[in-house]
Amino acid sequence: MNRILALLVSLVLIVSLSSAAFAAEAEPLPSLKDTYASSFDFGAAIPAQAFYDKDLLKLVKAQFSILTPENELKPDSVLDVAASKKLAVEDDTAVAVHFNAATPLLKFAQENGIKVHGHVLVWHSQTPEAFFHEGYDAKNPLVSREVMLARMENYIREVLTQTEQLYPGVIVSWDVVNEAIDDGTGWLRANSPWTKTVGEDFVLKAFEFARKYAAPGVLLYYNDYNTAYGGKRIGITKLLNQLIPEGNIDGYGFQMHHGATEPNTFAIMGAVDSIAALGLKLRVSELDVGISSTNDAALQSQAKRYAEVMSIMLKHADQTEAVQVWGITDNMSWRRNESPLLFDKDRNPKPAFWAVINPES
Q1: Which one from 286, 308, 321, 338 is the annotated catalytic residue?
Q2: Is 349 helix (H, G, I), strand (E, B) or coil?
Q3: β-strand 66-69 against 41-46: which pairing, if any?
């Protein structure tokens, strides 16, 4: 009898421990957006393929309060070159746009009460070459400054007004101009088609048009990378100081595509402090941290860098609108070989996730 009782007790203990382990496994993750709700939005860039994966979208809804399309609102995806070319027969300044690529993200955000940060209106890259040529034909000469300014205004007007009409209130901010400063010269890219056609005031004109057509309350950002490096930051600061008196820029977006130790923490802190001192709103628009392996030491180093970034931005929480990682899972990242994100390929949270949840630990 005693042996039978002992066996029964053992079985009960095994079942209890198994149930406890299952409950622990089933316990939902803490939410990044909830963790930072009192400070700023926490979000992600989301690739188009995510909208074919219902389980991934559940993760997105649980974790993020703001989304950015990776490519679907860039001019390559939005400018309808064929339709614009037809319009150009009568008016070479006319512009046609569509939002076919961005529709899944915009509808998802609208249906789930998630904000969207628009990326990007004016950029030298991922913009059809035909946009800058007479008759929307890349074989023709570049258009004049006057025609290009009119095309810029028409493009910005159509994008801002149509997205607001279709998805009112969903897009809360835009990168108006992206990566205008050259790494080598520390000033505007001489080879940018915008510089070639419009001239060095193209950034100021872009913000002028964006302010003219943006819905009330929509924030307008200049976005760039390598802000932690002195030469680049000098050029960025010079440009921001030209824009601020015009009254059309709201904030600066830091692209932080960093490594675990490079740039050093003081350089990142100095960059954020110096831009914050200009009085602009801040956002970390593109955050990821590359590592060379996924052993424990590398993962812990990555986690430390994420914690450092979050601690820096929390010190500027009164100016910060959002922190957004550039992607969701490692295997969907543009830096997939460097495992740079908060979730691994199996969607498991990495040490970096827990470091973001509690950066001061």
Answers
A1: 286
A2: strand
A3: parallel
Gap between the Cα atoms of 327 and 338, Å rounded:
13
**Rounded Cα gap, residues 166 and 186, in angstroms:** 39
Residue with tokens 């203990």, as numbered in its chain? 13
Q: Is the peptide bond before 81 cis (omega within 30 degrees of 0)?
A: no
Q: Is 179 a catalytic residue?
A: yes
SS (H, E, C) 215-262: CCCCEEEEEEECCCCHHHHHHHHHHHHHHHHHCCCCEEEEEEEEECCC
Phi/psi at 233 (nearest 5 deg)? -65, -35
**Domains of the chain and any CATH numbers:** 30-357 (3.20.20.80)
Q: 244-266 b/e with 16+ CB inside 10 Å = b?
A: eeeebbbbbbbbbbbbbeebeee
pLDDT per position as a tens digit, 271-297: 999 999 999 999 999 999 999 999 999
Residues 104-160 have pLDDT tens digits of 999 999 999 999 999 999 999 999 999 999 999 999 999 999 999 999 999 999 999
What is the structure's pLDDT at 15? Answer: 40
| CA–CA gap between residue 256 and residue 324 (Å, rounded) | 10
Residue 115 phi/psi, 5-degree rounding, is -75, 160
Catalytic pick among 70, 72, 179, 208: 179
Strands 251-259 and 219-225: parallel
**What token pair was written down for 175?**
């990168």
* Cα torsion through 272, 277, 281, 287, rounded to 10: 0
Residue 107 and residue 168 in contact, taking contact as beta carbons nearer than 8 Å: no
Kindly state the tokens that stand for 35: 């963790």
Concerning whether 208 is annotated as a catalytic residue, the answer is no
Per-residue pLDDT of 340-355, as tens digits, reads: 999 999 999 999 999 9
Nearest to 185 by CA among 233, 230, 232: 232
**Looking at the predicted structure, is the pLDDT value of residue 9 above 80?**
no
